[in-house]
Amino acid sequence: MSYLNTAPLVWGMLHGPQREQVELSFSIPSVCAEQVERGSVQVGLVPVAEIARQGLETVPGLGIACFGAVRSILLLSRVPWREVHTLAADASSRTSVQLARIILRERYGAKPRIAAHRPALSEMLSSADAALLIGDPALRVDTQQLNVPWLDLGAEWLALTGLPMVFAAWAGRPGLPVPWISEVTHGSYQYGKARLGEIVEREHENRRITKELADRYLRQHIHFEIGAKEEQGWQAFLELASTGRGALVAHP
Fold first, then answer.
1. Which of 59, 109, 166, 222 is the S-S candidate for 234 at Cβ 3.0 to 4.6 Å?
2. pTM above 0.70, yes or no
């Protein structure tokens, strides 16, 4: 995936010992999932909602997760949360859309109609009661300057379940050479983990976010190691997502 939160996971594949072992491409999460489904890529960082839908095989131990505030998944509303009837959502990640649906339903009793929309906050809030921003576009929002209420969906998930939230993991079609892919992905992550300062220096300007935010995001908000607690959170998400699921419609 092309967001900042993937950089430590792929840094070794980009700049380290693993760069000769893979052919790496970048796309938004939903497109990454489609590429895996088509078989045009062997393995990707796939949203967990898509891993379940496609019945993919996962590479254990690594992914994109949080335990509390995530900062890069923001839900904003111009009406009280219980009165959200329409939601304009950046549909780049189907997991994040389902998470927004879960939080609004379970925490606030709202069941909005959700329409896909490009990540442009003013346009989204002019066409719907609420807006969902994810990834780098959410990081570029200065939350201290917002004049509408907003929720961090990582924090909301923790309040609802007491568990970490897992957004994506390495996955591919059944029959993957898991031991080899695990060696490559874990090696790449260890290379990136040791170079977080370098990643922040090289990435923050390109993504139009401050150095301080990029550093805090990668060191505090995002977790990359998937253990037993994360697995529990993953399962809880799938169970809640299977309840009251609705359709996502394209924005005209």
1. 166
2. yes
